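Teaching assistant's notes for section 4

Start the section by putting this record on the projector. Ask students to predict, before seeing the second block, whether Leucine-rich repeat domain-containing protein will look compact or extended. Collect guesses on the board.
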Amino acid sequence: MRLYTDPRGEAYEQVIDLAIQNSEIFVLGEKIPIDTVQTQYTSVLKALEPYLVKTIVIQDHIDEVIQIRNMYRSSAFYTAGTYYLYRCCKESGSLLKQMANRLSDWIYPKLPEDLCFLKEGGGDFLYSVVHEQMYGIDVAEEEAIELMDRISGLFIKLKAHRNLDRLLNDAIKHKTDRLYISGHRLTELPEKIRYLTELRELEIFEQDLYRLPEELFELSKLERLKILTADLESIPASISKLKNLRELCIQCGSSDRPAPGYRVKPKEEISLKRIPPEMGDLEQLEQLTIQYTSIHELPLELEKLEHLRFLDLGMCMIDRKPDFLNGMKQLDYINISRDSLWETDESQQ
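Reveal the predicted structure now:
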């Protein structure tokens, strides 16, 4: 079963203990050319050396990757690299708990990558693909519910989470820092969303979501917010409260359940017509994407966004790039287009 995010702190330690008990070996990898490997984690490999069972080197051949992956029936082996297989025991588990605070810590260059636990005979008990933010555990739904009751911070995707109240209650209980909401036929977000106080990443894909509530902008730790919907009334001025926001993406004309005959509303009829000047108060903003809207102009206050590197307003109603953007020398990418989501460099001028 997939995890919404990787457990951290005490939850990470309890999950490591669980994985050690249910697995025969664990795997760590170096997914980069051996001659470019840095030595930051040499001490880690040395400390784990007494428990090393086997080292597997996979060359850059897809057939070899597939062969090893099928042999161990594991997500650990998905690309070329050097893989270290270690014996699961209390002592090696203790080292894993000392060396990291969460699964996503297992990433180059500080540590070898993608800690995975393999059961006796093959197959993953616990896996991680950190770059893709993919984590999973091999348990049935009933056991997952029992584990979530026992381990605060272990947030597993359940069939029961088709019920939005259950999803949000579990998300609040486990203080998740990442959440994806889709398929609930929402017309509005419930007020209890304000209690997701640890959220750093939130993605919502609900085609009937038309208004963004004030409670959403109480999530002060948010760094990434993505909203996909068919139409959006407005971007409230209260968005300025999200002082830690680094990435904002809003895409109208989106459908999470297009039925036969479904048609996207023409962009001229999209309700989102303006970007609030308060957007300029998002001091940490690095990426701003707002696509398929009837926005006609940009507020001059965007000029205050000194960290903004990426600006994409594909399929809007703006006729030409505003002059003040020319003074924002830190911008690496600008797309302001009326008729397509992507432009050539020449058409951005």
